[in-house]
Amino acid sequence: MLAADGSVRPHWQAVVSFLEAEGTDGCHSRSERIQRRIVENGLTLDSFADPDKLEQPWHLDLIPLVFQSDEWHFIEQAMTQRMRLFEALLEDVYGAQSTLDDGLLPPSMLFNDPAFLRPLHDVDINAAPRLMFMSVDLARSPKGQWRVLDTHAETTAGHGYALANRVVLAEASARLFRSCNARRISSFHQSVAEELARRTGLDAPTIAILGPNPDHETYLSHAYVARYLGYLLLEGSDLRVVDNKVFHKTLAGLQPIDLLVRAVAASESDPLELDPNGFDGPAGLVQAVRSNPSVISNALGTAIVENRGIGPYLNGLSQRLLGEAALLSDAPRLWLGEIAAREKFLSNTDAYILRPAFEATARPGHANPGYDLAALDTDARQALLEDVEINGARYVAETPIGFATAPSWSPQGLCAKPYALRVFIAATKDGPAVMPGGLALTISSGAAVGLSASEADSRDVWISSTEPQGPHYSRWRISEEESQVQRLGSRLPSRVADNLYWLGRYVERADWTMRVMRNALSRSDEDLRPIR
């Protein structure tokens, strides 16, 4: 917020004026109102957690993270380039694999990663992009330099939380939102919806989000996106593959699904050809993809680009696949699958933070903070170093740089807190597009290299624009206008009908149990009276 001379930067001036006008009491009151809305919307990190191990609820800061248009333009360029690069890389590793033949990417890195799905090799995707959604975790150093912490290409990671933050904060601080002339995100989601519909080739397609069970840590995020976009939210048990086509099981029979937006791990989406213990998708989904690759977005197997070991090779890959230098680099790290990198790490272990090369970090703020070998006891340190010697391909060694700070509102008033940023990119008819906003999280104390935020202290991200904003079109309103009331009970999903049936059985059983207990107590009342 502050320049080197201590003055307020121009795009933060509206925020400072707002805080001065509200005063301390007004800011506390508004912050409490924002948090009440968060609780009312059920935006907690894990609402199905063990009651004895309650986590902090999702907290939204009163003060957004504000970017100037010029700085955000660079981030947009870097993110769209990265999506184009990873799209080309996925096309190669699931096709000709020339990057492996030419030594631009170590084969052992690819084949040691469980995210590489061999059944999807040589599957013709009919020129449809494999990546529909991608998100990237960014961090700014104290000196102002940006770097990439992690890439997420498996699911719509954290998108629901970012969307909910914007809905809540823009409503609770509408005057501030207008004063900052912040860019709206509804047009981004409209473009996404249009692209998904275009991929089906139908006028009124049936689109569903294939999500995890309600007890999964990311369920609420996917449920919020499904509600906002007006799509079905289905589980693997809701689907069935017949004749290489995907259907939704209802009481009226099988209803065709034209497109699935994948929000589950690809390796667990088909127990027939992938992980036999994974039932997050229907058996036969891989064969359905072979027959019709456009039936699912993101394509199966995209998580291979999440491997942190790719970072040191990105510039060479970009020059080869795109013919241009990478605009934004990953955090400085070594992939320990190579002997030279492993020897460099072992010669000075205290200078690095050890991290897993592949990790499911879709849940915002729950990235592995890594291992600081200098802080470990002798036995734990020795065991970890021995594992690195044997399984080096599973680790990266990262140089800690630190995080820049941004203003945050606390019970004590305004303070500076370190942050990291998650940016969301999606494919549209005009190419990759970056959502003009994002999700910022306050980094936990002691975190050195990853997006770790145990307290779930989040902020909305605003892009201050110099151009007037057009009329606001909300997806909420669109879904209400397009909705049709249906009273066909036979269209009820089979899983929901099954749950309702057993709910009725258990309610009936509880009712009869209560009647028996009440009669037993009334008959024994005279015998129990002396005991009382």
Note down, in words, how this protein is organized.
With 532 residues, the protein is α/β, with parallel strands linked by helices. 36% of the residues lie in helices and 18% in strands. The protein is built from 15 helices and 19 strands. The strands form four sheets. Strands 1, 2, 3, 4, 15, 16, 17, 18 and 19 form a nine-stranded mixed sheet that branches. Strands 6-5-10-11 form a four-stranded parallel sheet, with helices on one face. A three-stranded antiparallel sheet has the order 7-8-9. The longest helix has 30 residues, at 494-523. The mean pLDDT is 88.
Features:
532 residues; alpha/beta; nine-stranded mixed sheet; four-stranded parallel sheet; 15 helices; 36% helix; 18% strand
